[in-house]
Amino acid sequence: xxxxxxxxxxxxxxxxxxxxxxxxxxxxxxxxxxxxxxxxxxxxxxxxxxxxxxxxxxxxxxxxxxxxxxxxxxxxxxxxxxxxxxxxxxxxxxxxxxxxxxxxxxxxxxxxxxxxxxxxxxxxxxxxxxxxxxxxxxxxxxxxxxxxxxxxxxxxxxxxxxxxxxxxxxxxxxxxxxxxxxxxxxxxxxxxxxxxxxxxxxxxxxxxxxxxx
Length: 213
Prior knowledge:
With 213 residues, this protein is of the alpha/beta class. The protein has helices at 25-41, 64-79, 89-93, 114-122, 174-178, 186-198, and strands at residues 16-21, 44-46, 54-59, 83-88, 104-106, 128-129, 134-135, 138-139, 156-160, 162-163, 182-183, 203-207. Helix 1 (25-41) links the parallel strand 1 (16-21) and strand 2. This is MTTase N-terminal domain-containing protein.
């Protein structure tokens, strides 16, 4: 007599993911990295949000309209019964906001763990990763620059050379999200640039919150 085989109904890497980004070029680079990792794992990145199983929403906190659009997109995803993972400066800077409660979060320095967060979210779990990356006790730029990437423009590589800021502007909420300055070693930035040219890129954008630093 054959025994029954019970299989998990969630097979990671088979679902469709919709990625939406608000804000600066740094945010766009983060989304390109997250999409690249998800695609490398097997997930299909789609432009049609209604076809997606999960929405990855990468937010911006600099201007109120962008944050309002982010909130509206979360509400729409809930209305459509989509799985939701949020990222970017809004949840990092104000993690206790009521409209984000119960949602999984990829912190601004944790984008290299997006596959893990998506997997757990599709299982019905809520995962929140906010920790800063450090080396020898010092904050660094963030996740590795060598991660796979799906570029919005295949001819342009956006390289974040640091994250955070040295200033203390009272009107700026980004400092609360990105924190103190943390930089990538110059050799890692140069290596990423060289690799990008090998992949057909013809233009490089250097980005950060405090590029003058």
